[in-house]
Amino acid sequence: MSRKSAKKAMPAWWEQAEVPIGQQWQVTLGTLELTLARTHDEWVLHSSSLEDSEASRQPQYRLSKGQLDNPKAERFVHSGDGHKVSLQPRLADRPVVIRPRQAVALLSGQQITLYLSTPVWIDIMVGEPPLLLKSLPAQRLSDTWFGPNTREGELCYSGRTHARHDPRDLPDRPHRAITPLTIHNRATSPLPIEKISLPVPWLALYGDQTGRLWTQSVTMTRDSETDLASVRVDSHEQAEGKTLTRLAEPRQAAQRNNMIRAFSAWLGD
């Protein structure tokens, strides 16, 4: 497989911007399209979603004059002169169940590191000090139930991945965060990696100088002939030689008993 010799640097889209009174800011990030306008005492927001095939590979911005006149727009009262805005990324609020596009089996005694990506949520922050206007997913994921039956398991999001082994093969997708996942199979039988429950609410979120998003590294170890795995979340201050800036804390504290159902049956879609 041919590889690009160098990745084109993307802007850090989570940096603060300014929307003066009487102007509107249009942003496309992944499948999310936002238009945010500022009046003397309100912020006006309109959001819509693109098809997955139309998702932007790089952030797109446009600042123009005029008020936002859309019957589906939302109005948020905010008096004062504050006109600063930032789009702050956060990881999903549920685990994401990821299916590799091609089945992978890990033999006994082997390990593998996969680079998985999941869409982030966007907290729209306005004013000084910053106030939360609204939180929206950069790409909408479908719901799924992850567990052996309808009584045992949890509600998750559903995602797909190419399960790449080399981070140089990852496409530039500014609205998705990359998780390095190492899986150890210490059981005597092969481990089919057909679906993985990634506990993203346990992870902190980071950004690098090229505008890419990363999470802490995760290690899953399977010791017996079950779908359970012990999970370790690693500290993460660098990724592939890049210095990272911590952007968001984990949504949830990791469980004290770090055994989770990581490779369970898939019910529904």
Can you summarize this structure?
With 269 residues, the protein is an all-beta fold. The protein has no helices and 26 strands. The protein has 2 domains: 17-88, no CATH class; 91-120 and 139-267, no CATH class.
Could you characterize the architecture of this molecule?
This protein is elongated. A hairpin with a 5-residue loop joins β20 (218-222) and β21 (228-233). The protein contains no helices and 26 strands. The strands form 6 sheets. Strands 10, 15, 18, 19, 20, 21, 24 and 25 form an 8-stranded mixed sheet that branches. It has a 5-stranded antiparallel sheet with strand order 5-2-3-4-6, with no helix packed on it. Strands 17-8-14-13-26 form a 5-stranded mixed sheet, with no helix packed on it. By secondary structure, it is mainly beta. It folds into 2 domains: 17-88, no CATH class; 91-120 and 139-267, no CATH class.
The total count of strands amounts to 26
| Number of helical regions | 0
Share of residues in strands = over 45%
> Sheet bearing the most strands, described?
8 strands, mixed
> What is the global morphology?
elongated
- Name the helix and strand elements from N-terminus to C-terminus, one letter apiece: EEEEEEEEEEEEEEEEEEEEEEEEEE
Helix content: under 10%
| Uncertain runs | 1-10, 265-269
Helix and strand content put the structural class at mainly beta
Number of domains: 2
Terminal CA distance: 31 Å
Radius of gyration, CA atoms, in whole angstroms: 20 Å
Compute the average pLDDT. Answer: 84
